[in-house]
Amino acid sequence: MVLSLNSKVELLNGVQMPRLGLGVWRTQEGEETVNAVRAALEAGYRSIDTASLYANEHGVGQAIRESSVPREEVFVTTKVWNTDQGYESTLAAFEKSQELLQLEYVDLYLVHWPVADKFKETYRAMEKLYEQGKVRAIGVSNFQIHHLETLMESCRIKPMVNQVELHPLLTQKKLLAFCRKEGIQIESWRPLMGGRIDIPLLTELATKYGKTAAQIVLRWHLQLGIVTIPKSIRAERINENADLFDFELEPEDMNRIDALNENQRFGADPDNFDF
Asked: Annotated site (Lowers pKa of active site Tyr), which positions (predicted)?
């Protein structure tokens, strides 16, 4: 699979989404966020993932506006938080996000978590935003197969992306297969397991390929066709996380990484969360 930092996936509606992006979860609003996004854009990243919960949308937008990279080349994702879910409140939440970002449109808008009895109305509001041209693509985050099935019973526009926790210890094979069948792009958050990459196999493969364990894991994601958004605030790490395109994992090594799966979550369980 020949990939580059410019490689994209095509979503259901034809929109092109970069395979690799920068996540800014727990990146402090202001200088820290601006500097991280600036470093990513300078390194060649063209996708930035934020959310209203992260409280750093303003910094993300500022860095993009101040960049020499044309706006149409940057893919910006944000998300509606749980307490804002519902039809009218989602429309209002989007207006607030757009005001903070100070961008004319958002490339991808996601339902952050499947809040029972609310996510259908939330998504209905997103369909309106999409039809109004305020967002180029819509989708969900942290949805299990049954959440997707429930949503698709009534939605008019199939979700284009499902952003979930996915990494070698949580390979999500059933969910991945379901989304592939439905044409829904899987995107991975916390791809590096919150830094818990001191695993003998990953160390072995890092030596074999002359890479870091983190680079091995990110390359594994890309070769599975998964969009991924590693988070960092350090320019050198941001650059390192993008240095994935001068090697390819052999099929047997891909399978060995798959076999690390323990169904282990470091984040909340989408079927049992209280926020």
From this structure: 79
Annotated catalytic, 123? no
Structural domain that includes position 67: 8-196+225-233
Scanning the structure block, which residue is given the tokens 């961008």?
Answer: 103
The CATH number of residue 173's host domain is 3.20.20.100
205 in Cβ contact with 217 (< 8 Å) = no
DSSP state at residue 269: B
pLDDT value at residue 1: 65
Interatomic CA distance for residues 221 and 188, integer angstroms: 8
Count of C-beta atoms within a 10 Å radius of residue 149: 12
Which residue in the list 54, 109, 123, 130 is annotated as catalytic? Answer: 54
Q: Is 58 annotated for ligand binding?
A: no
Query: Which tens digits make up the pLDDT trace of 203-228?
Result: 999 999 999 999 999 999 999 999 99
Q: Is residue 185 part of a domain?
A: yes
- The total number of structural domains in the chain stands at 1
The residue count for the chain: 275
